[in-house]
Specification:
Helix content: 10-25%
CATH architecture of one domain: 2-Layer Sandwich
Radius of gyration: 14 Å
Strand content: 25-35%
CATH topology of one domain: Alpha-Beta Plaits
Number of strands: 6
Distance between the termini: 29 Å
Length: 118
C-alpha cells in the first residue's frame, strides 16, 4: 500500500515525503535556489481554492510570499478537504533536487500535520 493510499483510508495523517510539482512557475526556480535549504526549515501550505487548473491546489510557500511549488495533485486531492475543514499542515525541508547538466531545480519536502489536539 502506498503512503497516499494509506492516508485515503485513515482519518489520521502520517507525515509523507514528496517532490513538489509546478516548480517551473511563478518564480519558483529562483525561490528554490535562494530558500530551498535546511537553514529555512519549514514552509507554509496554502490552499488555492480559486486555482483555475485544480480546485484542490495546495501551494507551498515561504512566509506566504515566496512560492516554492505545489503539493502533487494526487495528494492535494486528499489533503484539500482536510485543510478546508480546518486541519493545518507544514512542509519541512528535505532536500533540493539538482541534476548536473540540467538547469531545473526541484524541492522535496516532508508534509506534517500541525493541527492542535482537541
Amino acid at each position: 500500500m502506498t503512503q497516499i493510499a494509506h492516508i485515503e483510508e485513515e482519518s489520521s495523517f502520517m507525515p509523507i515525503t514528496v517532490k513538489l510539482t509546478g516548480v517551473s512557475f511563478r518564480g519558483a526556480q529562483e525561490n528554490i535556489r535562494q530558500f530551498g535549504c535546511a537553514a529555512i526549515g519549514t514552509y507554509a501550505l496554502i490552499r488555492e481554492t480559486d486555482n483555475e487548473f485544480d480546485p484542490n491546489a495546495i501551494a507551498v510557500s515561504l512566509g506566504g510570499v515566496w512560492f516554492m511549488g505545489y503539493v502533487p495533485s494526487r495528494l492535494a486531492r486528499i489533503m484539500a478537504p482536510m485543510m478546508d475543514a480546518g486541519r493545518t499542515f507544514i512542509a519541512e525541508f528535505v532536500c533540493r533536487n539538482e541534476t548536473p547538466g540540467r538547469e531545473l531545480v526541484g524541492l522535496t519536502v516532508r508534509i506534517v500535520e500541525t493541527t492542535p489536539s482537541h
